[in-house]
Amino acid sequence: MAEVVLSGAIRANLLSIQNTAKLLAETNIRLATGLKVNSAVDDPTAFFTARSLNTRATDLTNLLDQMDQAIQTLRAADEGIKALTKLVETAKASANQALDTPINPSFVEGPRDTFTNQTLNLTAVFSSIASLEVITISYGGGTAQPVTVASGLTVSQFVSSLNGLTGVSASITTNGSLRIEADDGSDLVVTSSTGAIATDLQVAGTFSNGQNRTKFETDFNQLRTQISELARDASYQGVNLLDSDELTVNFNESQTSQITIQGVTVNAAGLGIGEVTTDDFKIEANIRNFIAQLDGAISALRTQASTFGANLGVVEIRESFTERLVNTLETGAANLILADTNEEGANLLALQTRQSLGTTALSIAAQAEQNVLQLF
């Protein structure tokens, strides 16, 4: 198809209108997207530099999520230490109560004026008691300990046999009565396994008139169990810094800057708090030893809380720095590719005016050729 021959004036105006239309299209795209660089064609250097900056900002933003989770893990550990400290302090209060509680033996006392002469045979004093009868004594739910009334056993010897039992004391009072005691203050049980000697002596039964520290032993061990269970439960997202877990926090996208937080074992055994066995609290020295263990545990918890606090401070500082760095990177990228909407708006207005003028100029140039028609 043959080309249309245009005059120089018309072609010049046409080129001007085409250039204006191209600029209008670019300006409209910039206003629509808000970007002055939409592809590498627009400005390769600015486009790829901005992409690199935004990519790093995205990587650091992902790290911010990790840092935030690390902060929550440290806070969970800190809350665990606070609760553990309260439990340890409660256990110490229980031990101090035990220390302040005196042990009063539980006892039974027979009738007065019964044993005025301890050299007499027991069977002579109580004709109802026969040789080989057996009296049994137990305390605190323990095993019954027997004493047999052998032939020729005197009152004094009988009392000595009772004193030979573990945890039991016996005596003839100044009033001539038989007194049997459970030294630790727990329930005293006196029975007859052969014959009715305990009934004959009027000391049979269960007697809980003493005072002991058994309750404090139980309370202490229950608190010790709670300490271990709480330490086991102080985890966050599967990481428990109170159960020797390790937490690594990365501070840059290449993982060359990081902090590794080593967890500790702060259950009862890890804190050096031993278990109270039966009758441990009978001896004051033992109680003081447990109190010393609890003081050491409190000191260890406070030291570890300080360590975790320092670690938390580091992570929070790096999180704040990373947030500002991400903002800087995104601002730098935006400065390279974002369009100035005010400037582009002014450009659009100017180009629309230029387009109108170009159309008018093209019309004027065409009129010059139309004047030829007047010759016919």
Describe this structure in words.
With 376 residues, this protein is an alpha+beta fold. The chain folds into two domains: 57-101 and 214-331, f41 fragment of flagellin, N-terminal domain; 106-207, no CATH class. The chain is built from eight helices and nine strands. The longest helix is centred in the N-terminal third of the chain and has 57 residues, at 44-100. 27% of the residues are buried.
How much strand content do the residues show? 5-15%
Instruction: Report the CATH architecture of the largest domain.
Output: Up-down Bundle
Q: Spell the H/E element sequence.
A: HHEHEEHEEEHEHEEHH
Q: Structural class of the helices, strands and pairings?
A: alpha+beta
* CATH class category of the largest domain: Mainly Alpha
| Average of per-residue pLDDT values | 85
What shape does the CA trace take? rod-shaped
Q: Report the helical percentage.
A: 40-55%
Low-confidence stretches: none
Question: Which fold name is given in CATH as the topology of the largest domain?
Answer: f41 fragment of flagellin, N-terminal domain
Strand order within the widest beta sheet: 3-2-6-7
DSSP, total strands:
9
CATH homologous superfamily heading of the largest domain: f41 fragment of flagellin, N-terminal domain
Radius of gyration: 49 Å
Count of spatially separate domains: 2
Figure out the total of helices. Answer: 8
Q: Give the end-to-end Cα distance, rounded to a whole number of Å.
A: 28 Å
**Largest beta sheet, briefly?**
4 strands, antiparallel
